[in-house]
Design goal:
Strand order of the largest sheet: 1-2
CATH architecture of the largest domain: Orthogonal Bundle
Radius of gyration: 15 Å
Distance between the termini: 22 Å
Largest sheet: 2 strands, antiparallel
């Protein structure tokens, strides 16, 4: 699965969690792409069984998409915690770096970070890791 696909799935999850729904226009703003680009990508992700989408409706996550989004969100927040606690990156600066790294760390590295940090429950912003 491409990084771009992962960003869309995680974007839908974030919008659902923070706003209660994921509208195509909101996803376009979040990802800094056109509405047309969102429509095309959402259709591809729907074909892959990750998103539910009907024209003029909110975007939904399938069970497969929700599982992926939760995994990506956990990884992202754990990496933010690692950056803040171990590398002393200011909490306000960890998000963009975690966005890049969440795709590249292996599962073994994620497990090692969990162990090193003694299985934290929240990210540096106070959000639960397993949300």
């Amino acid at each position: 699965m491409t990084l771009n696909f992962q960003d869309y799935v995680r974007g839908v999850y974030y919008l659902q969690q923070s706003r209660g729904s994921a509208k195509p226009t909101d996803l376009a703003k979040r990802l800094a792409v056109s509405k047309n680009t969102v429509s095309l990508m959402v259709q591809k992700l729907s074909d892959k069984g990750l998103l539910e989408y009907a024209r003029y409706k909110d975007i939904g996550l399938t069970q497969k998409g929700r599982t992926l989004a939760k995994t990506l969100t956990y990884r992202h927040r754990l990496i933010e915690r690692f950056l803040a606690d171990v590398l002393k990156v200011p909490a306000d600066d960890v998000h963009p770096e975690a966005c890049r790294l969440e795709h590249d760390f292996s599962e073994a590295s994620i497990k090692a970070i969990e162990k090193l940090l003694k299985h934290p429950r929240t990210d540096p912003h106070g959000q639960p890791l397993d949300a």
